[in-house]
C-alpha cells in the first residue's frame, strides 16, 4: 500500500492553491476548477472544493474545521523559508524553533487555518531519515 495524497477540502480552491504555490514554489496541476494538486517527489497535496463533499458522502468533510493534523514540508533551510514566507503567510504560529526530535521547524496557518510545518532536520538521525526525499 502507498499513501497517494493528502487532501484538503476548502470553500476557496483558488486562494488555497495560490497560497501553496507561493509557499512551496511548486505550480499546482489544475485537474478541474474544483480540484488541484501540488505534487512533490515524496507526496501530493490535493486541494478540493467543498462542493465535492456530497460525492464523498453527505457531511463526510467540512472546510476550515481541522485542528488535529499538520502538513509537513521538508525544506533545505527553515530560516531562509521563514524569510521567504514573509508576505505569503498571514499567521505564523511560531518562529523557526529547534524541536527535541531533531528538526528545526516553522509552523504557520494556511488561509483555511490548517497547520503547516516547514522543517529542516538538524540531528544526524533526522537527516538520515530524510536524505532520500526530494526538497
UniProtKB/TrEMBL annotation:
Signal sequence segment: none
InterPro entries registered for this protein in UniProt: Glyas_Bleomycin-R_OHBP_Dase, Glyas_Fos-R_dOase_dom, VOC_core
Domain VOC: 2-121
Gene3D superfamilies registered for this protein in UniProt: 2,3-Dihydroxybiphenyl 1,2-Dioxygenase, domain 1 (3.10.180.10)
Top-rank lineage group of the source organism: Bacteria
A Pfam family reported for this protein in Swiss-Prot or TrEMBL: Glyoxalase
PROSITE patterns: VOC
The protein, known as: VOC family protein
Higher taxonomy: Bacteria, Bacillati, Actinomycetota, Actinomycetes, Streptosporangiales
